[in-house]
Amino acid sequence: MRTLAISMGLAGRNLLLVRRVPSVFIPSLVMPLFILIATAGAFRGIGALPDFGGASYLAFTVPMAATMGAGFAGVNSGMTLARDLEGGFFDRLQASPAPRLALIVGPLLAAVARSLFTTTVVYIAAVIGGVSLPGVVDTVVVYALAAAFAAVTSSWAIGVALRAKSVQATPIMQVVVFLSVFTSVAYTPRSALQGWLANVADWNPVTFILEGSRAAQLQGITWERLGPALLAVAILVVVVG
Fold first, then answer.
1. Are 20 and 49 in contact (CB under 8 A)?
2. What tens digit of pLDDT does each residue of 27-65 get?
3. Spatial distance between the Cα atoms of 26 and 28, rounded to a whole number of angstroms
4. Smallest Cα–Cα separation from 163: which of 151, 172, 152?
5. For 88-135, where are the alpha helices, taking DSSP H only?
6. pTM for the full model?
7. In whole angstroms, how far apart are CA 207 and each of 18, 19, 49, 236?
């Protein structure tokens, strides 16, 4: 209970920084919206392919935008920790009797909370664009998978921050998140991919997360899609965490 209380306190501090240092949070909010609007407009025509099953490309893009926003929420936690390391605040935390686990769980919980906000903003933009919301259970699945990806990317970014001890390591945090999403089924279903990207996407864990989220958004979640998504999340949490 003590570890949880301290973790929640550190998570609350991270969320307060959204108001105090908006330049850190705003890009993570603008980027998924930019991806949602730009790709839905530029690639709208390919939504007519049989692989899309008649779904609008905007609806198809919603899970990817939510996942990308969650990824940036995780990166923000790493950036915040890197700033604390540079400024000496993290040294004071280490000198305190706070459990070491709480120093990691706090930023991770903040990333999950931020992902819930970015996913909500993505859904608001999508509804304005004419996308229908899925059922309650399916919507919860989209939120949960995005939050899980935020926890994974937060673990990655925190790990980089603890080793580099500098906010200058932010590009490394971001590039890995970008690559993990864009080498998956970010823009088309797996059946429409060709060449080396198809081979990479088959082994990319983010592919299964996106496929689970898309199934919930477009057709309704089934265990056939949810199971691989949960397994992918579990593997990433173990490896990256």
1. no
2. 777 888 888 888 777 777 777 778 777 778 888 899 999
3. 5
4. 172
5. 89-95, 100-128
6. 0.89
7. 30, 33, 20, 12
